[in-house]
Amino acid sequence: MPTLAEIAAHVQGQLEGDGSIEITHACDIKEGRPGGITFLADPRYAGHLAGSAVSAVIVQSEADSHGKPAIRMDNPKRGFALALAYLYPPESAEPGVHPTALIGAGVQLGRKVCLGPYVVVGDRAQLGDGVWLQAGCVIGDEVQIGSRTRLAPQVVLYNRTVIGEDVIINSGTVIGTDGFGYVMEEDPPLKIIHLGRVIIGDQVEIGANCTIDRGTLGDTVIGTGTKIDNLVQIAHNVQIGRGCLLSGETGIAGSTTIGDHVILAAQVGVADHLTIGDRAIVAGKAGVRQSLEGGKVYAGDPAVEHPDWLRQVTAAGQLPELVKRVRALENRQEQHEKQVEGEGN
């Protein structure tokens, strides 16, 4: 088991206390037990640490560790993430090709590739070193997959899809389907064939049951380091920058461009042919119907800057009382008019 000193060195934190303690597991601050390591980033949870049986804690540089051996860092949450990766390295598989796998003509396999049961690899596909395709994955013709990329069971990559290095794609995700494009003047609507590709950058993570459509003529592109939650739909010709976060059930319509480090919270809907600038944040359930500047926070449907949305919500909450007041004024006006009419007679 690693010692606290070894973990401190790995996360590049400042060790405080007995570094020889063996760390057997990571744990929640509320449920600590001997051998465990946890972290404290929010002072509101400091009380839990004081009474915890946890053996060590990762804390901010000036925080109270309540007498426990500690690793001090400016960002304890980041340190804990690094510690988790150290304590629980990714699962691996023995290189090799399962007897039930089907490999097409002209396929190029890198070193230490692992192809699980019932994997299908199309003609002229290229798989880099250390690629791991788990059971039931289907890889189309001329697909390119970079080194150390891992596909969970039953991922489908359509023809000519390009996947970078160190990518993780979870079960049920389908990449490279035709986009939703039709000539509506025809009856029934005439399908537009999509000839583009999907290109996924390095270190991208894609959740379960996501769908990413190929471009019509150009490509759909997902930038390096972007992380995509479960159940996300990305339409044809969408361009997504580096380091973006797309939460569950988000949908992005065709030909929209999203900058770098953009955050789209859960169930955000983005209309087609729009631009969202770098480092924009869009709150959950927002409807993006026009392009948004970068560096701002948006909410609502249609999405507006967050302070404007707060004013709208506040005003909406006052509507029932305003309706009562208007009705009261109308009644008073009606009584006044009747009174004037009676005096006139």
Topology at a glance:
Elements: H1 4-11, E1 14-16, E2 25-26, E3 36-40, H2 46-50, E4 56-60, E5 70-73, H3 76-87, E6 96-97, E7 102-103, E8 108-109, E9 114-115, E10 120-121, E11 126-127, E12 132-133, E13 138-139, E14 144-145, E15 150-151, E16 156-157, E17 162-163, E18 168-169, E19 174-177, E20 182-183, E21 190-191, E22 198-200, E23 205-206, E24 211-213, E25 220-222, E26 227-228, E27 233-234, E28 239-240, E29 245-246, E30 251-252, E31 257-258, E32 263-264, E33 269-270, E34 275-276, E35 281-282, E36 287-288, E37 297-299, E38 304-305, H4 306-317, H5 319-344
Parallel strand pairs: 2-3, 3-4, 4-5, 6-9, 7-10, 8-11, 9-12, 10-13, 11-14, 12-15, 13-16, 14-17, 15-18, 16-19, 17-22, 18-23, 19-24, 22-25, 23-26, 24-27, 25-28, 26-29, 27-30, 28-31, 29-32, 30-33, 31-34, 32-35, 33-36, 35-37
Antiparallel strand pairs: 1-5, 20-21, 37-38
Strand order of the largest sheet: 6-9-12-15-18-23-26-29-32-35-37-38
State the separation between the terminal residues, measured CA to CA: 101 Å
Backbone CA Rg: 28 Å
Number of helices: 5
CATH architecture of the domain at 4-87: 3-Layer(aba) Sandwich
CATH homologous superfamily identity of the domain at 4-87: MurE/MurF, N-terminal domain
CATH topology of the domain at 4-87: Udp-n-acetylmuramoylalanyl-d-glutamate--2,6- Diaminopimelate Ligase, Chain: A, domain 1
Number of E-state strands: 38
Beta fraction: 25-35%
Class based on secondary structure composition and strand pairing: alpha/beta
